[in-house]
Fold these 3 entries.
Entry 1:
Amino acid sequence: MEGPSSENDASALLIDFSFTPPQTPQRKIQQYVEPAIKEATKRQNGLGVEHELQCCMGAPDEEFCTSTNINTPTLTPFKRICIVGAGYVGAPTGAVIAYETDFDVTVVDYNAQRIAAWNSADLPIYESGLDHIVNSTRDGISKHADGVTTRSNLVFTTDVEGSIDAADIIFIAVNTPTKTQGQGKGYAADLRFVEEVTRTIAKVAKADKIVVEKSTVPVKTAESVRLILMANAQPGVRFEVLSNPEYLAEGQAVADMLDPDRIIIGSLPTPEGLKAADALVEVYSQWVKRSKIITINLWSSELARLAANAMLAQRISNVNALSAICEKTGASVDEVAYACGLDHRIGNGMLKAGPGFGGSCFRKDILSLVYLSETLGLPEVANYWRGVVDINEYQKDRFTKRVISCRFNTLTNKKIAVLGFTFKKNTADIRESPAITMVTNFLSEGAQVAVYDPRARKQQILVDLHQACDDTVALENNLMICGNAYHACDGADAVIVLTEWDEFSNVDLPTLEVQTADPVALKRSTVLDPNANNFVPEGTRHKEEELCAVSAFLGALEARNVKVESPRITSDDEGSEGSSVRVPITPAQTVPQWRIDWVRIARGMRKPMFVFDGRNILDHGKLQRLGFRVEAIGKASLAEANVGC
Ligand code: UGA
């Protein structure tokens, strides 16, 4: 990968320890710097009074919390936690529990290679902040700003049986892929790994245990787990089964764990079940507000997990279906999504049109819901949810066809540069990525495809494409995985942006939120920031230097191991008069490490040059001024209007 251009080199600022923030406006210091320092102090002193107060007084969702048993916590005698499954869920979960509590946490996996990677300096999963958390807890390196070395309380090991036996609480965090054979093939979750772990727990446990389902499982799995445990338990050993589903989104798993929207704990409504739930509440309440810890019944907890993903994916399919109408009518999908998202009943999350959703969970979970509906004799419900997945496939095909049609209906011997291969930014994960389908489609059209992604591993891209694409000759002869965007785009006829990585963007630096005294004036002055995720109010654009300054200071704090919480981008004290508009960025994200130079890309491409913006992350006007023809998801085809292609 090429280094940053000096113009955009924010990394130099990020390590400038001599930076002092006097140029930063006082308000920004209050917003970002003081909370960060407060956070550091709090961590030096243990949990602060403020935190305690928040825990006790946090405005709980009364409906739930009054019906829970979390108001009279019991101090748990439990001290050892075992997490079975060192994957995307288990390892970050274990690391954060170890980081935030004094529990001894053991993360186990039969896969020796994976465990070796977790014990190395090169962690097998990329998640922002995870290396710091693992280093602190696994190696006992300074946890916080004070430089004090802490006890190491996180172990990665292949000793599954020994670790289960030693633990008080065992989390099952193994994968539950979609079944590839037998009844429910292609839809139902394959629970074979959950069952194996359950049997192992029953076999080795010599004392009572709390078993926690962390993996995403179909409703009523806890019943099967309970049955297996009871049928195979050693004499006198009792188990309680809880459901505590994960709600981590990749790329922000650590942030999600440190500051979750909610922690759901499902238990049986028996005295033993409620007591077990209390023990788990006790673990989480060491860093999560009590009001965010919701205890509900086991089956609700299991279903809520699948339902949340299905509803999120459904929103993306809604907006993607609308994007097709926008392209035909001249409506802009960003404007439509914005207009709908302002209705608080709809909200503005998951309304960004794209080439289709990917990732390991959405498709799998919806299909599992489809299967569940069918087995419950509810074919209409099954069809309803199946439609969400169908629209997702349609979106990938639609975008492919648009590329082909704009390139004069043939891609044969044309070079197509694909920028981005992961299913979303800030992760190295390519599972179910729309890029797999699209690259396969381009290859089958006879194109030469050059792929560049900042994080995806070359080997993994090849493996996944080999699975998806039957044409091995095309894969061998016409596919290139490149180390940088310039290489991929050199001599290309078209660039297709499939992942919203910041480094691909050419949009002016975004804005931070500001306060305005007059909400009506603010509403009136609202303008669309072209092609950006959101509208931003006029007059809220901050100088680039200000953003750099804040970012630099936060970077310096982080480099000194001061844990900087995702800053709340609010301006003044909450509750003060005036309104605020939140733009979904954090200062740390505001200044990307570096961005590709589209002038250089243009210089190397064959003419006419096309950009297909599958994520609406580019400033199309700027690209057009460079001579690109731009086609964007959910926007009428400019090429059609201008050149009749
Ligand atoms: C998702 C859920 O968001 C998590 O709450 C859940 O815990 C997780 O699945 C899981 O089951 O483990 P994740 O798959 O990591 O998290 O990623 P998302 O951020 O939800 O994105 C999923 C896909 O939807 C990506 O391909 C993304 O690009 C796409 N997307 C997302 C859109 O196309 N538009 C949007 O507005 C949002």
Entry 2:
Amino acid sequence: MEKIDIKSLSFPELEQLLAGMGEKPYRAGQVYGWLHQKLVTGFGQMGNLPRKLRERLEESCFLAVLETAEVKVSQIDHTYKYLFRLADGNVIESVKMEYRHGSSACISSQVGCRMGCKFCASTLDGLERNLTASEMLEQVYRIQEQGGGRVSHIVIMGSGEPFDNYENVVRFLRLVSDERGLNISLRNITVSTCGIVPGIRRFAGEGLPVTLALSLHAPNDKVRQTLMPVAKRYPLEEVLAACREYFEKTGRRLTFEYSLVKGVNDNPGEAAALAKLLKGLHGHVNLIPVNPVREREFIRSDKKAIHEFKGILERAGIAVTIRREMGQDIQGACGQLRRSFLKKQEDRSPGLGKENEGG
Ligand code: SAH
């Protein structure tokens, strides 16, 4: 019998599981509290449960727990980069940023990614697998346990495309915002997508008031297609119509992410076109100087070009910010830490190529 991923169960599902074991209804609240508030890493720690029940849970369920493989701490601004090892040996990246108002966790939704965006390191080796809801929760739980302070904000902006793992992401959002768990406000959570139209539409109907961030990166399909293969599938017109629908249904303003790449999408004409494109949409633009990825030839726009670009948007009445760069000294773009870790492992065991693994 396959074991149940108990940390991915909703409260009603947990109630059902325990009722099926012949347990009293109040046990569900106790177990849920151990899992999602006390953040235990083993059934043995569930102190107020009878030993018999702990043993039965151990037999039928497993507890997803992430192991910390590496932590890098920025000496500049206390940004933490974590490499977590999953039960199957895969590793993923998460980041904690400390702000005045609390801590924000940036988490991954997949191991690798299959979207193929040209400037992104997470996608270089393709998609390995989806993360479960419990593995997403665990990133937040381990960050909170290790860092001390409460995680108040979450951004799903690590590796992976959230709408390519739709069900697990929605399950995660409901669990992490549950008042019997960490109770993180959905208004403090951002989901970032490369623009999968059916995903945006469906998400608009979930009744989850999270902030949606759209990775735009170009003011027209032609340039966008050179950076993001997904743009060939979903033209901008459809993507922005879905964004408008998201605002209308949820009342939540959107964020448009725009990574500035020198000579590719950063000229004044492109800024003006972007302003025109976004006129009347309820959102703001977040300009991100591109993080150079070793395997690619993209160069970040220079400071002057970035400020000029910003000025054009502002004068056209578009709200715009330049992303504050955190953890510069431990940086490396999204997915780079994982790649260098995997590379190190490979170097340590020469001859043990991918084809020999897991056989
Ligand atoms: N799949 C989601 C989440 C990806 S990461 C999405 O596409 O939105 C979050 C943001 O970082 C995205 O806007 C992504 O395009 C951007 N990004 C990825 N690599 C980058 C890099 N090297 N430099 C700047 N931005 C990058």
Entry 3:
Amino acid sequence: MRTLPNFSLKSLNSFGFDISAEEYIAVASSDVLRQAIDYAKSKSMPWYVLGGGSNLVIHENLPGLTIHVHIMGKKLVTKTSSHALVDVGAGENWHEFVQWTLDNNLPGLENLALIPGTCGAAPIQNIGAYGSEIGQFIDSIEVLDTQQDDDELRWQTLTKADCQFKYRHSVFKDHPGRYIVTQVRLAIPLEWCPNLQYAELAKHTSNISPLLPLDIFEAVCKIRQAKLPDPKVLGNAGSFFHNPVVDESTYLSLKEKFPNLVSFPSQTVNGQAQFKLAAGWLIDQCGFKGYRQGDIGVYDKQALVLVNHGHGNGKELLQLATLIQEKIHAVYGVDLTQEPMNLPTS
Ligand code: EPU
């Protein structure tokens, strides 16, 4: 096992921030991953785990060891009477994996096409788009549990229930840094049913008959490409805030004050109706769309996306995020929660 000193992470974070790791290692197997953590522990240095770097704000050079998970491999394990069980290594690119499932006649993930990042990072924030979430398709997840009272590292298999998936949330977010995902097992229903609950996707595919999974995949790619910036061209981490979920009375008073408020019914909690507000709309209405402070700004086609026009840094980005949060709180009384994780954790 060999680490590299002073390693640039510019191409390993989707904002493209010019930041470096004190020591860096790419790990291609569970064994080397374990050695890397043992090494960091033996030197009492902090460690950070990177997947695709597409849901992170790295705002300072990272001290200690940065571990880039490159554990690869994808295979159909078996088919039960109802599902195909598929294993994928944490380092595989998510979008290429979605393509592979379609190529292998295992449709179901097409609504999640073109989401940046790796398969290992996907369950952490329960990636979701166009009416689907990865949590629906999880069978179990192999992890290295790094936080034990006796300081021992342990391999664990977390079931879907253990993962506690919710909107953009999971057990991994409750315990940042504790679990390192090495492999994901998905359970993809054998009976395919198109998911067209997102109105724009239904509109894009309404003229196609018969409608095939690949048609939905292509429509999702088109919609995303029209609305969301390609991180290779313009640094970003997708949605920067969660869509806030509010109770019915908050929703009703906001709707009265702002009749054009964009919102969707959300899951009920303890029998109480909840509403998801479109954070992009709130930010847009406050005049931030296309707003720019130096090289950091708000994307001009989707106000929920913050972008780096080239030479911005993480500190400036977090300042703009705070400005937006304060404005939204002042105008609507609603708190916006940041979606990407800050590194180092602050
Ligand atoms: N809107 C505006 N102005 C904007 C942006 C949005 O008025 O600048 C309003 C529009 O009415 C629009 C509505 O907000 O119809 C919702 O916007 P959109 O359909 O783009 O979805 P979103 O709620 O902003 C969420 C996810 C996206 C996902 C899309 C589609 C979150 C935090 N974001 O965005 O996920 O692709 O739905 O399902 O839930 C990501 O996580 O990186 C991401 C892109």
